[in-house]
# Entry
Amino acid sequence: MKRRCSFCAFITAAVIAFFCAGAASAQQKIYDFEIVNTYPHDPQAFTQGLFFLDGFLYESTGLKGLSSIRKTDIATGEVLQKYDMPDAYFGEGITDWKNRIVQITWRSQTGFVYDLKSFKQKQKFTYPGEGWGVTQDGKRLIMSDGTADLRFLDPNSLREIGRVTVNLRGKPIPQLNELEYINGEVFANVWRSDLIVRINPETGDVTGVIDLRKLRSALPAGSNAEVLNGVAYDAKAGRLFVTGKLWPKLFEIKLVEQKLEE
# Structure
């Protein structure tokens, strides 16, 4: 299981302080949130990847022996379809590509392609290093590996075709985890923080930080909720969903830009 790194203290505290100290600009913003709706979520799901497509939520879960991909009714939380991975693999992020699901794994240097409808495995591929999160921008796959880099993969050959280093004013931001491509930006969970960074995928520049630390107060008392991890976007309705590992709730939220003193 991935562990906390000392740099995450910088992510959680210093990044917020950096913005609130007057460093925010028209290009870099900090966001609070409002809860729009709350939905049930499997409290046993160690969420690794999330996406919304055609009215359903697709999710990957991690941990060896418990890794899976699943299709869920967002309103009820009911798992409608599930594929359990072989015990040797620690499942990580997933994304859709045409009529398929692309999934990566943590340390096995192995990814899988499944049929979107049947979850039948269609292809296996390899990559160097670790796999954390994956999304797509309509032209290429975008993958995180636990560093400050985003890798770009050709969706057909599944080979790397480029990469960019994510940075905040020149400071690399590592521990990028679950990813979602939204309206030209990559939203990335930062491991072991309750923050999401918004990234320009062409330059790697952080354009904003979403502070979700207060979202934990909306979780039931006594839950075993771990780190925030899971971003999904309903492009047709403009709905943004977030959850976390072992969270009993999935939240639809609205972002609210914070007005900082100059």
The first strand starts at residue 29 and ends at 40. Residues 3-10, 19-24 have pLDDT under 50 and may be disordered.
